[in-house]
Amino acid sequence: MLTASNFQKATNVSNTLRDKWYPHIAACMSAFQISTPLRQAHFLAQTGHESAGFQKVEEGLNYSENALTAMFGKRITPEQAKAFGRNALHPANQKMIASIIYANRNGNGLVDSGDGYRYRGRGLIQITGKDNYAALVKQLGADVVADPDLILGYRFAALSAAAWWKNHGLNEIADSDDVTRITRIINGGTFGLDDRKSRLIKAKGILCSR
User: Fold this and answer.
1) At residue 58, what are phi and psi to the nearest 5 degrees?
2) Which sign does the torsion angle of CA 185, 57, 105, 142 carry?
């Protein structure tokens, strides 16, 4: 059973973050069968990485012009990156950046719809895209399509992550201890894999050694 103390030790969060997050982490794990020490260790490692140590629940979009072309060159033109990315002439236009790079993906509409920004990454696992928000409405018992900012609160930030985790079969993959495969499903690649592995080693050392 996950306790407040071993949650804190497994994630290395402060006392303040422990007190804010633990009740919601415990509840979401119970609701979505993240029920073994190994499943819990993987969940905490991945959500810990995605949330920068349980400190953020909203995607950062303060990209520079150069970062936009390097990371999203297939989704944004050099002209758009120059116009909306952060450079010496102006700050990043985060609303336009998200609207462009997430347009016509995961149920989002065209750039002008604003869906890319409206359904930007939120929660402990960075739920992104209108379809992914819509898939959680029934499980969360809240219309996060109509009000996506609900996922910024502690309760739904945790519940949305756990629901998405279960819906994508990550409990079963965690049972096989395959951190790389879990990372690919969450991230679409292996970005941050070393940090995720490091967090997993720490979490397993606390949760799986008892």
Assistant:
1) -140, 135
2) positive
d(CA 179, CA 4) in angstroms, rounded, equals 24
Nearest residue to 194 via CA among 209, 205, 206, 179:
179
170 and 42 Cβ atoms separated by less than 8 Å? yes
Category of 155 on φ-ψ map: left (φ > 0), alpha (ψ -120 to 50) or beta = alpha
Angle in degrees, CA 186, 67, 56, rounded to 5: 45
Give the confidence band of 209 by pLDDT, cuts at 50, 70, 90. Answer: confident
104-130 pLDDT per residue, tens: 999 999 999 999 999 999 999 999 999
C-alpha–C-alpha distance, residues 42 and 39, integer Å: 5
Q: How many other C-beta atoms lie within 10 A of the C-beta of residue 119?
A: 27
- For residue 132, how many other CB atoms are within 10 A of its CB? 20
